[in-house]
Amino acid sequence: MLPLRLIRLYAFCRLDVPHPQVYVRAAMRDYNVKQLAQEITELSDALSVVSNITEQDSIFGSRDRIAMPDETLYFKTGSDRDKALLLYTLLQHSSIVDAESVIGLSNENSFVSHQGKWINLENLSLLSAAPLKLKILFNARATHI
User: Could you tell me where the beta strands, DSSP code E, fall in 88-142?
Assistant: First the structure.
């Protein structure tokens, strides 16, 4: 059984938990995001959805907590962390799914890997190499620190 302190961290969607992949698993269950992902046939489609979230603040007021993709879409705002989870979820439910895709977090930014490229969530640019100083990598299966 998890200690109460850890249960609180997960309940508040904190990212400083031992298994952040639970947030990916929760995000993957959202019906609205699944439906939206059916229209995604190439990476630019998913990037377009994320770029339409123009506000930069998390609904929680902190980059240390992560909002679920349906919250980010509904409130039309999200930190780079929130948008990374949204992008990852959209891609995983789309026809261009990449089983090796991961979310990567550094102190300054968030990234999503997809088909050998890294997407920088600060400006949605593509990087050909893994970003430096990633402090955590995770997807629905595992966490790598």
Answer: 103-105, 110-114, 117-120, 125-127, 136-138
